[in-house]
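WARN no homologs supplied; continuing
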Amino acid sequence: MQVPRFTTVVAVDAAHLGEFRLAHQTWKKCRPEMWENPLLIFADTALPPAGTGESAGWWERLLARTCDHPDLRVVGWPACGGATNRHRMLSALVYGTAEHVGTDWFVKIDTDTLCLPCENRWHPNWFDEKENFEFVTGSWGYSKGIERWRRLKEWAAGVPELAIMPEAPGEEFPPKDHVRHQRIISFFFVGRTRFMREVAALAPGPLLPIDSQDTVVWYIAHRLGRRYAGVRIKKFGLYHGARGMEKRVKTILATP
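OK structure emitted
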């Protein structure tokens, strides 16, 4: 099928650099489209102890040696008001994408996501204008952190565009500190850039309302009544998880 032009978006810090060095080799082999379109990396430039203290230029030189992508661009992501590294870097995937992606579509991929040989790499419905999906990603059955969920709902009550819309579903399950609902998981996320700009406008940064990018994006889409698809993303040759990554990468690269 014809895949529209898109930008691949990744967030990298010192803790996840090793994963990126391994995983991107499988992206190149099994998703050549990702090497035919731009790669945008948000790199941690916060000062210690929050971050590495390295500049965007330092990251760009390092990543250019690590990854031979022909159209790689690095944007530094600085510290923000004492926020955790997780909160700051996940926020980059929304605000950075909204500001720096120039294509209509983008693919956000985690550094511990491997692309496996697979005939059905993309589904034509994902990009079908008749479907009008804002995004397609993996389906999931719960959110971690009841207090986090309550904070998100409290934030939304103060946003006029969201407050007038029906609340998103969520059943609190205290034994596991989970909220049960049919939502998404975004280790491989195909999205429209226009929607990420809308999310950024509704939740002006520099930090997301909570430290979960996929929860915020799903929640806003659901509250606004936008179309999205949660699918069994592993059926499209994607594996998520750092355990045994080096061995898995060697196997993928050795597969004809």
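The mean pLDDT is 95.
OK
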